[in-house]
Write a structure and sequence with these properties.
This protein is an all-alpha fold. It contains nine helices and no strands. The longest helix has 31 residues.
Length: 272
């Protein structure tokens, strides 16, 4: 089976960058601008261009494109009705499963992996980084959510049922982000480009998706660097468990800040 280590030397100076940029740009159109006709057209152009340049690259681009198309078929918002949560949850699951299954059983590759137990202990720096993530979330998220008013993109969680659905939804999407954007998209792009370039390409799609989820206003100034850091962290740690831990800690602060934003007398510990 093909692995990352068996791939040829990666370079940024390649014609493959053209379809890769088109793919990332289609993510902006599909999720950021929500212009499906132009988004699908650009995505199709990306695949056609890849077919003319490198068939091997096309195979991997198809996997990312398949996941993007699947998640674009459902409304990406914080509707916490059972129907919408089921529909969106199913789409998110398929967006990860389809690329993995095709890569594993159709392409006979062992590239897309979700390394949980790496056998490596987290060094002190990794543990301190987790603390820093919580601190940064505490300082940034309430200011962003409340001063911009984007907290209204998420429902009021004062009702117990909505409270737990919001908690479940925030954490589920956080885990999925790492499964698709980092372990799938970033990993596949790394086969063909230097890590820094593959990371930028995935971060464009990642932050565009988060825009549609609700991180609007100056949200990309927060989500794009976060996506880059997650890709870089995965490169360093090679651990799905660690990047998910980072994400869930940040999302836990997000959840608490959202609860407070809708009910200012709850959790009056935030500064904004």
């Amino acid at each position: 089976m093909t692995t990352l280590s068996t791939q040829p030397r990666r370079t940024a100076l390649t014609w493959k960058l053209v379809p890769a940029v088109l793919l990332s740009a289609s993510g902006v159109l599909l999720f950021g601008v929500e212009n499906d006709p132009f988004g699908y057209s650009m995505l199709a152009t990306s695949l056609v261009t890849a077919a003319l340049i490198d068939r091997g690259f096309l195979r991997h681009l198809i996997l990312v494109a398949a996941g993007m198309v699947i998640i674009s078929l459902v409304p990406l918002n914080a509707d916490l009705s059972v129907t919408h949560m089921t529909l969106m949850g199913g789409a998110l699951a398929l967006a990860v499963l389809v690329p993995w299954l095709v890569s594993r059983y159709a392409y006979r590759e062992s590239i897309i992996k979700f390394p949980v137990n790496t056998g490596r202990k987290w060094p002190l720096s990794a543990k301190l980084y987790l603390i820093a993530v919580v601190a940064l979330g505490y300082l940034i998220l309430p200011v962003y959510l409340i001063r911009t008013g984007v907290y209204q993109n998420w429902p009021d969680a004062s009702d117990p049922t909505i409270f737990w659905r919001l908690f479940l939804g925030v954490n589920t999407v956080g885990i999925w982000d790492e499964l698709f954007f980092i372990c799938t998209t970033f990993t596949l792009l790394r086969l063909h480009f230097p890590d820094w370039l593959a990371n930028i390409l995935q971060a464009v799609i990642f932050s565009s998706f988060l825009w549609e989820i609700g991180y609007m206003a100056w949200g990309p100034l927060l989500t794009f660097p976060f996506a880059l850091l997650q890709g870089y962290t995965f490169k360093l740690t090679k651990s799905f468990t660690y990047v998910v831990s980072v994400h869930l800690l940040f999302d836990f602060v997000l959840f608490l800040a959202l609860v407070h934003a809708h009910n200012r007398d709850w959790l009056p510990v935030f500064l904004y």
